[in-house]
Amino acid sequence: MLRLTLISLTCAALLPGCAAISALSGAATPLENYDLAAPVDAPQARRSLARQLVVEIPTAPGALMTERILIRPRPLQAQYLPDGQWASEAPVMMQTLILRTLEDSNGFRYVGRRPLGSFGDFVLISELTDLQAEAQPEGDGATIRVRLTARVVRESDAAVIASRTFNAAAASATTETLDLVDGFNTASQSMLRDLSAWVLTTTGAGAR
């Protein structure tokens, strides 16, 4: 069973004073910050392209537009861990992970966020639909799920040249925060390896 005391997303809607109480409680007990790491064994490019790749911040549903770590005790129930959070909002964190992974591939002259007033040769647009822990209905563990839908756009004519959805999962033996974060790291790195290989192949850099 889920042993953590969780903060419900519906709390503020049900009790008008709940948000203020939650804020006071959060101020009294600062949350630990956690970050995820880009994979060190991601695919490398077969050739380096003299092209620029811009990585946009993924769009995401409202439950993920926060630093809080999402856990679902039941399929339709969304709650947050009470003692830990991401170091940045989930979509921003995922953008940084994608950037680091593709930079390390050595497939492009430039990989980064959009420079002010400039355009890239390719743009990676994505939607982060899942970054959550799902508590097991029986037992103490959880399943971590990461789901990202990505599109590579050729910026010269705004043509979508490829699109794909990436899914990854990892098991956590418990619902303790450290175990869950380890599971998030495992699942996200698996997804990033697949994403990197696909982007390199799609843009002509090739992957090995």
From TrEMBL:
InterPro entries: ABC_trans_aux. Residues 1-27 form the signal peptide. It comes from the Bacteria. Keywords: Signal. Pfam families: ABC_trans_aux. Residues 34-194 form the ABC-type transport auxiliary lipoprotein component domain. This is Membrane integrity-associated transporter subunit PqiC. It comes from Szabonella alba.
